[in-house]
Design goal:
Strand 1 and strand 2 form a beta hairpin. This protein has a domain of 44 residues. With 98 residues, the protein is α+β, with helices and mostly antiparallel strands. The termini are far apart. Helices cover 40% and strands 14% of the residues. It has a 3-stranded antiparallel beta sheet with strand order 2-1-3, with no helix packed on it.
Length: 98
């Protein structure tokens, strides 16, 4: 295999191109900052999970999620449902009943 004669030249060219790209990137960023467009707007976070008064259940055998009224389990067999909803409301209710 013959040695590449212009290896140093190619490496310098790649470095020059990389520096030019970085400079262009910095220029675009300063333009956005000057215009007040520095980044994406996040906005308010979306609510995740079921609405109030609903519980969310997961079944590993089915691979799906079901919503029911609070305090009720899904009636479908096999009975391998896992409660996903934070059940602080349930524990408060059981503490009051005791």
């Amino acid at each position: 295999m013959a040695k590449r004669r212009n290896y140093g030249f190619e490496r310098r060219q790649k470095e020059t191109l990389r520096q030019a790209r970085q400079a262009a990137k910095r220029d675009r960023k300063t333009e956005r900052d000057a215009e007040g467009q520095s980044g994406p707007e996040m906005g308010a976070p979306e609510e995740s999970g079921p609405p109030p008064g609903q519980w969310e259940w997961f079944s590993p055998s089915r691979g799906r999620v079901v919503q029911t009224n609070a305090g009720q389990r899904p009636d479908e067999a096999p009975d391998d449902w896992i409660l996903l909803t934070d059940n602080a409301e349930e524990s408060d209710a059981t503490d009051r009943d005791s």
